[in-house]
Design a protein that fits this description.
single chain, 296 residues, CBS-domain, 10 strands
């Protein structure tokens, strides 16, 4: 009796329940045959293995979302080449700029994964990317489409502050206790400005050169007297929904920036939720590691 021409095996459980025909001319061994091992994700039909294209599907989904996001960012036409789109957006978005090389390579990989028959709009998957490539593509998609918020990276922290009607000596005490370079000055709950430690040094120097009474300056001069609107030019106010990449862009564009002040809506006068300085970059980079993002 000739053996069957094909055998269908859907999974390992089915494989254990299938008994192969035995050639009567072959001697039967008393030893039990080992169980047939079949990968769970494979389907064997007529000795052919059907390819698992789940990785290709995940890759293409992320690719399409990234492409749509880049077109929104650049305002590009639908027919614009993906490589050209990445290069154009590199000048506008820091995340695209940092991952431009990978995105260009993945654009070429996308063309290798799918094949379109001449005269047909349907695409056929002819290759499957490895797990690492798919995961990295999904990480880049998350960074572009849903970038991490700054407030999630640094949380709300204690802010060194002083009241406007307090003497300058209270500002000196706040600097000593908090070991920070910037004090937020509040007047009845409203932020009216900042006192920078270097600005305070300049005030002290000026009074020494004028032979003024320093004791009176520290004990009788109110903090509001040394708050200057020009000091805010070295600060940037952003909302709590700002992304971590917006902060890096702010410091990149303004070399004289002392700190980024974070408020609820990014409006001057609101309560300050956090102050970000370059000393916070290592902490932000550790947070970005959870997104598998490149450190700055």
């Amino acid at each position: 009796m000739a053996p069957p021409r094909f055998l269908v095996i859907l999974n390992q459980r089915a494989a254990r329940n299938v008994q192969l025909p035995v050639d009567p001319r072959r001697k039967i061994s008393r030893k039990r045959n080992p169980p047939l091992q079949t990968p769970p994700a494979c389907v064997i039909i007529a000795s052919e293995v059907v390819m698992d294209i789940s990785n290709a599907s995940r890759f293409l989904q992320s690719y399409n979302r990234i492409e749509s996001q880049l077109k929104l960012l650049h305002g590009a036409k639908a027919a614009m080449n993906f490589t050209d789109l990445v290069k154009k957006c590199s000048d506008q978005d820091i995340t695209v700029r940092r991952y431009a090389a990978e995105l260009i390579d993945y654009g070429k990989l996308r063309n290798a994964i799918v094949h379109r028959t001449s005269g047909s709009a349907d695409e056929t998957v002819i290759a499957v990317p490895c797990d690492d490539v798919v995961q990295n593509m999904e990480y880049i998609e998350a960074l572009l489409c849903c970038p991490p918020r700054l407030i999630d990276a640094i949380k709300v922290k204690k802010i060194a502050s002083v009241f406007a009607d307090k003497p300058v000596l209270s500002a000196v005490e706040a600097f000593r206790e908090n070991k920070q370079k910037t004090l937020i000055v509040y007047d009845h709950g409203t932020m009216i400005g900042v006192i920078n430690c270097y600005g305070l040094y300049a005030e002290i120097e000026r009074r020494i050169l004028e032979n003024s009474d320093l004791h009176a300056f520290f004990t009788q001069t109110e903090c509001r007297a040394i708050v200057h609107s020009s000091d805010m030019e070295k600060y940037c106010i952003l909302s709590q929904d700002t992304t971590v990449f917006d902060v890096f862009v702010a410091f990149e564009n303004r070399k004289d920036l002392v700190a980024v002040i974070v408020t609820e809506n990014g409006v001057f006068g609101e309560k300050v939720l956090s102050i970000v300085t370059p000393s916070d970059f290592p902490r932000i980079n550790r947070f970005l590691e959870t997104y598998n993002a490149k450190p700055f």
